[in-house]
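Objective 1b of the project was to move from sequence-level analysis to a structural picture of ligand recognition. The entry below was assembled by the postdoctoral researcher (A.K.) and checked by the PI before modelling. It contains the amino acid sequence of the target and the SMILES of the bound compound, pyridoxal-5'-phosphate.
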Amino acid sequence: MQPRDLSMHEPYVPGRGTKEVARELDVDPDSLIKLSSNENPHGPSPAAVDAITDTAETVNTYPKSSHTDLTARVADHWGLSPEQIWVSPGADGAIDYLSRAFLTPDDTMLISEPGFSYYPMSARYHHGNINTYPISKAQDFQQRASDILAQYNDERLLYVTTPHNPSGSELPISEITTLAEGVNDHTLVVIDEAYGEYSDNPSAIELIEEHDNIAVLRTFSKAYGLAGLRIGYAAVPESWADAYARINTPFAANKTGCQAALAAIDDQSHVEHSIETARWSREYYRKELDVRTWPSGGNFVLCEVGDGAAVAEAAKQEGVIIRDTTSFGLPECVRVSSGTRKQTKAAVDVLSEVIADIETTTAAESGVETEVGRP
Ligand SMILES: *Cc1c(COP(=O)(O)O)cnc(C)c1O
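Corresponding predicted holo structure:
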């Protein structure tokens, strides 16, 4: 017995977890600073924690009204109708819902390289193919509609990540309009705004009313601090919003998650505080780390450190877990998530030391003298 040919399906590589690393290093998990998965370092809103506790005693029933209530609340937040909010198990779930709704076998999805690995995974689950457009380091990861359209070849789904993971670059809203107007009628442009809250740019959700070929992904995993509960959604145009009823997995967005998300969206002060810290932190990394970095609209910064794997490993030994971006095709970089002020300062101290050490060692081994800390 064998499953179908899965050789094209690459397993998802998550950032390392605190417990996992604590066990490996044989240290207390609380002594570690985890900056590898772009999570909210302040934790969830206290109101969400209360909602989680309160929901515990009623998880024997299916999440019908919780789902309806969350959908209505999110729709209200954006000024859309409830049908236009496709609540899903994480934004990853919404990626699958769009694949289900749009892809027929051998349809193609156009995605960025480097990019978020779940897009191609979802395409392949749905018997689709992948084309890519570059977001290149040589051009500072700049995103432009004309560059994307130059690579566009009538694909069924076109994904844009803004702010982009792992580079932090953004596609301004005027460029998103150009993109939506530049593709053929049957192409859906999906704007992944998993990090939208941290950006200064407005959400592409405002374009949905005018353009029925734009869908926008949002999540409660990042700024709302609920990654462990797996709640996200797609905001979609009214004209085809009713497809949701035919493609969603019944009750896939769990009750505890829906209730926590409802509480979290009503605690905007927690979100605002989280955004403020993240913006401070990303600027602090850029200013204090003596390596090449790029402007980021998200809660993370991409840093060019030479040997990303070696730097991530050495930082881990010092208790700071960061993401080596080899799996994104950027082995010379690491991605560091925004932390609290204290965590950010500690991370800068550790990273500066580790990067200098590795440069000195590499220089000594190659017999070349380099200035310590030089990019
Ligand atoms: C984190 C992330 C998501 C979604 O995460 P969920 O936890 O599934 O909501 C989507 N896209 C990008 C680019 C991300 O980094």
